[in-house]
Design goal:
The protein is α+β, with helices and mostly antiparallel strands. About 50% of the residues lie in helices and about 10% in strands. It has three domains: about 5-90, no CATH class; about 95-240, no CATH class; about 285-390, no CATH class.
Length: about 400
C-alpha cells in the first residue's frame, strides 16, 4: 500500500514552514533546527502508512523523505513521492530470523509449550542461557524503577522481520494479545476488588521490564534494548499449573472464533488496549486508558460522550441502569483527566468500567451475528431496544425490498 494523506488532507501549513526554513549549501539540504523536530513529528500524524511499517520506523522514513523532497521546493505531492520511495526501500529489506526475549509474571508448567499468532511463534522455556542478556540488564538498570524481577517465566518470540523495531513491535503485539485473552479468562467474572496492600496491576499476567532482540544463534542484534517504564517491581506471580486448563481452553476458543472473523483486526486492537490499561500500577491511568478502549469498541473516538454511553449501555438487558452507571463513570473520567487528581474509590470505579469493556470485548470475540466491520457494529449498537420499534423497522425493510424489486 502506498502512503497517502489521511482524509486526503495534506498539512500545507507545515510544508510551507519547511520551505521557509529550508536552505541548500554545497548541495546539502538543511532546515531551521528549532522547528524541524516537532514539525517532523507533527507531519507523521497526517500520513497513512502501510501496516507493515513499524511505528518506530515511520518517523525515520518521514525525516528522510523531508530531506529528499527538500532538494527542491516541497509540495504535498513531492513529499508523498519521497515517502513512498523510503517506504518501498524499507519493505524491500531482507527478512531475518530473529528472536525476541522477554518474561511473563507466571511460573509453573505453561499451558502450551509453544503457540503462534500472526506469524510469530511463542515458546515458554524453563531457561534461556543461550540468549545472553547480561549487558542489556546492566545497561537498563538506570532506566528501571526496580531490580529485575525474580521467578518470571521466560518467553521467546521467533519470527522473520526486517529490523529490530519490527521484531519488537510484532512480538509484543502478539504477547499482549495472548495476555489479554488469558487475563480476560481469569478476570472476566471479577467485577470488584478492594485492596488492603500495596498497589499492583489488575492484570494477573504482566510483562517483565526488559525486552531484547537476538539472532537465531542467541547473539544480541545490537546494544539496544526495550523496557517497560511503568514497571516498579515484582507483580504477583500467576500459577500456570492451577490455571493451565482454563488458559488452554480460552486461547483455543478465541483462536477458533477470530480465525475467520471479519472483526479480527478491531478485536485484537481492543484486546491490546484492555490489557495495556490493566498493566498499570496507577489505577487512575488504568481508568483513563480503559475509557479509551470503551470509546474504541463503541466506535466513538470522535463522537460525543452521550453516544459512547448509549452504545455501551445497549449491551445490557437493563440498559437504563447501565446508562446511569456509565454517565457517572463519564463524569469521573473527565474529573481525572482535567483535574489530574485521583479519587479515593478509584479501584472501585475502575472495576465498574471493567465490566462494560469486557462485555464489549466478549461480543467482538464471539461476533454472534457475523458483523462484517466496525460500521456494522456501530449500526447494531445504535438499534433501539424497544421490540415494537425493531419489528416496525424490519417491516419497513421488507416493504422497501418489495418496492425496489
Amino acid at each position: 500500500m502506498a502512503t497517502k494523506w489521511i482524509n486526503n488532507s495534506a498539512p500545507n501549513e507545515i510544508i510551507s514552514i519547511f520551505n521557509q526554513g529550508r536552505s541548500i549549501k554545497n548541495g546539502k539540504v538543511s532546515f531551521e533546527a528549532f522547528s524541524f523536530e516537532p514539525l517532523a513529528s507533527a507531519i507523521s500524524t497526517y500520513i497513512e502508512f502501510s501496516e507493515a511499517i513499524p511505528n518506530a520506523i515511520r518517523r525515520q522514513l518521514v525525516v528522510r523523505a523531508i530531506f529528499d523532497a527538500g532538494k527542491a521546493e516541497i509540495t504535498p505531492h513531492t513529499l508523498l513521492d519521497a515517502l513512498n520511495s523510503q517506504q518501498s526501500r524499507y519493505l524491500r529489506k531482507v527478512n531475518k530470523k530473529l528472536v525476541v526475549v522477554t518474561t511473563l509474571s507466571a511460573s509453573g508448567p505453561p499451558p502450551f509449550k509453544q503457540l503462534s499468532f500472526d506469524g510469530v511463534r511463542f515458546s515458554f522455556p524453563k531457561r534461556i542461557e543461550k540468549y545472553d542478556r547480561s549487558k542489556s540488564m546492566e545497561a537498563a538498570k538506570h532506566m528501571l524503577h526496580s531490580e529485575q524481577p525474580s521467578g518470571y517465566q521466560p518467553v521467546l518470540a521467533r519470527l522473520h522481520a526486517r529490523s529490530e523495531d519490527e521484531a519488537i513491535e510484532r512480538s509484543l503485539s502478539g504477547i499482549d494479545t495472548i495476555r489479554a485473552i488469558w487475563n480476560l479468562s481469569i478476570m472476566g467474572k471479577v467485577d470488584w476488588r478492594i485492596s488492603h496492600e500495596k498497589r499492583r496491576p489488575i492484570n494477573e499476567l504482566t510483562l517483565g521490564p526488559l525486552h531484547t532482540v537476538h539472532t537465531s544463534d542467541g547473539r544480541t542484534m545490537s546494544e539496544r534494548y526495550w523496557y517497560e517504564p511503568s514497571f516498579v517491581g515484582n507483580a504477583r506471580i500467576c500459577d500456570f499449573k492451577s490455571k493451565a486448563n482454563q488458559l488452554r481452553r480460552s486461547w483455543m476458543s478465541a483462536q477458533r472464533k477470530l480465525r475467520n472473523s471479519r472483526l479480527k483486526k478491531q478485536c485484537v486492537k481492543g484486546l491490546q488496549m484492555y490489557v495495556q490499561a490493566f498493566d498499570q500500577y496507577d489505577f487512575a491511568t488504568s481508568f483513563v486508558k480503559l475509557w479509551s478502549a470503551l470509546e474504541y469498541l463503541t466506535g466513538t473516538q470522535n463522537d460525543r460522550y452521550e453516544i459512547t454511553v448509549r452504545r455501551a449501555a445497549s449491551m445490557f438487558k437493563d440498559h437504563k441502569a447501565a446508562k446511569e452507571i456509565l454517565q457517572h463513570l463519564r463524569v469521573r473520567r473527565n474529573s481525572l483527566v482535567h483535574t489530574l487528581g485521583e479519587h479515593n474509590d478509584i479501584e472501585t470505579i475502575t472495576y465498574q468500567l471493567k465490566v462494560f469493556v469486557e462485555t464489549l470485548l466478549q461480543f467482538y470475540v464471539r461476533n454472534p451475528f457475523d458483523l462484517q466491520n466496525q460500521d456494522e457494529v456501530r449500526y447494531f449498537l445504535d438499534l433501539p431496544r424497544d421490540s415494537s420499534i425493531i419489528n416496525r423497522r424490519a417491516e419497513l425493510v421488507r416493504f422497501g425490498r418489495k418496492f425496489m424489486i
